[in-house]
């Protein structure tokens, strides 16, 4: 029978300075966070080991609070125990505590000395999440644990990837409302929200492999990112950046933008009543990118009006180079500011969820 670890991330008020965030468990970062990782996955320098993008902060600290133990966690543990599973519940308050849980997913020692996931392990992981950012925090630590440095890339690693197949995780949403108007990643993927159904997926299900976006800020993206901001009245602010998808230039940085959506899944497919992403698919090996550009046009009578032009492209990688100032963004619900070039690239089928 399986050993199951039921992992919950502590709230910000429970764990100052912990939970993969340098100050909060949603996956943000403090001003002291200076981790920068290149496309090869190597760390260029860190003030902490939080592994988050510099400048990121949780969008809402209370939103990620997970008072221990939450009722869904207890219900899921009971359902697993009733089926004969050996259940361990853990509330992690730091990256080190998350890493201690993930170590239970390690495979046998390899001749090359790399830490590698156990493809036939009997230990399964359930992540109880109050937000997509919390799930991202766990996946970021999985990537940090198992992605080999470029100088030690093994021969058995897929040619289109920088990391092996990550161990599947089960997702236990702690906020049922996120399956409604605001669709979190679990809702988009059609994952169960009932604790008993989550337990059944862990014990009886199969892994559904999904694409992962890595970026050269040292973090990962599961759902997507939205760049841009609005003023106090809700009016979108103009900004400029060069946006490239593989060899396609969506904008060269000379024209104003209202928004840029980078989609692995569909969480940022729409902005108000504007469709940005046409068909983001978290399992197609590509990232879909869209920019919203205000364009001035003249009518037959010479009157000017502004229409919104949405340009889209799909590919394996995207880069955004701000031309001036700071560009605010949301990445899996985590706020940040982009001040220099940022690149995202697809790791096809790198992570997985348990489904029935």
List the helices and strands and how they pair.
Elements: E1 3-9, E2 57-58, H1 71-82, E3 86-92, H2 95-102, E4 123-129, H3 132-146, E5 169-173, H4 185-188, H5 195-204, E6 206-215, E7 220-221, E8 224-227, E9 241-245, E10 248-252, E11 259-263, E12 270-271, E13 274-275, E14 287-298, E15 304-315, E16 317-322, E17 327-331, E18 334-338, E19 342-355
Parallel strand pairs: 1-3, 1-4, 4-5
Antiparallel strand pairs: 2-18, 6-7, 6-19, 8-11, 8-17, 9-10, 9-16, 11-14, 12-13, 14-15, 16-19, 17-18
Helix pairs in contact: 1-5, 2-3
In short:
The chain has 356 residues and is α+β, with helices and mostly antiparallel strands. The chain is built from 5 helices and 19 strands.
Beta strands, count: 19
Determine the N-to-C terminus distance: 18 Å
- The low-confidence parts are 12-18, 20-52, 57-67
Rounded to the nearest angstrom, the radius of gyration is: 21 Å
**Percent of residues in β-strands:** 25-35%
Strand count, sense and barrel status of the largest sheet are: 7 strands, antiparallel
Q: How much is the average pLDDT?
A: 85
Biggest sheet strand line-up: 2-18-17-8-11-14-15
Order of helices and strands: EEHEHEHEHHEEEEEEEEEEEEEE
**Helix and strand composition category:** alpha+beta
Number of helices: 5
């Amino acid at each position: 029978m399986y050993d199951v670890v039921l992992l919950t991330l502590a709230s910000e008020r429970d764990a100052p300075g912990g939970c993969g965030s340098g100050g909060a468990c949603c996956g943000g970062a403090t001003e002291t966070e200076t981790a920068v990782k290149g496309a090869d996955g190597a760390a260029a320098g860190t003030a902490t080991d939080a592994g988050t993008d510099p400048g990121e902060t949780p969008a809402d600290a209370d939103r990620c609070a997970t008072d221990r133990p939450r009722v869904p966690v207890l219900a899921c543990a009971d359902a697993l125990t009733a089926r004969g599973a050996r259940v361990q519940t853990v509330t992690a308050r730091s990256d080190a505590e998350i890493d201690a849980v993930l170590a239970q997913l390690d495979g046998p020692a390899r001749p090359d000395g790399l830490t590698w996931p156990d493809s036939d392990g009997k230990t399964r992981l359930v992540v109880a999440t109050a937000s997509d950012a919390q799930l991202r925090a766990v996946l970021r630590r999985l990537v940090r644990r198992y992605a080999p440095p470029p100088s030690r890339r093994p021969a058995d690693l897929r040619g289109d990837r920088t990391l092996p197949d990550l161990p599947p995780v089960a997702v236990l949403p702690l906020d049922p409302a996120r399956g409604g108007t605001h669709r979190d990643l679990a809702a988009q993927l059609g994952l169960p929200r009932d604790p008993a159904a989550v337990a059944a997926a862990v014990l009886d299900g199969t892994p559904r492999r999904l694409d992962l976006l890595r970026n050269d800020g040292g973090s990962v993206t599961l759902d997507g990112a939205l760049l841009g901001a609005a003023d106090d009245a809700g009016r979108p602010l103009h900004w400029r950046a060069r946006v490239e998808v593989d060899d396609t230039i969506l904008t060269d940085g000379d024209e104003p933008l209202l928004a840029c959506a980078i989609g692995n899944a569909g969480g940022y497919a729409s902005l108000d009543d504007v469709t940005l992403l046409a068909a983001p698919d978290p399992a197609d090996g590509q990232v879909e990118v869209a920019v919203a550009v205000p364009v001035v046009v003249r009518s037959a009578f010479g009157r000017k009006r502004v229409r919104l032009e949405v340009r889209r492209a799909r590919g394996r990688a995207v880069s955004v180079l701000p031309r001036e100032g700071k560009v605010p963004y949301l990445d899996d619900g985590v706020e940040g500011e982009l001040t220099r070039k940022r690149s995202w690239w697809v790791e096809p089928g790198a992570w997985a969820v348990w489904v029935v």
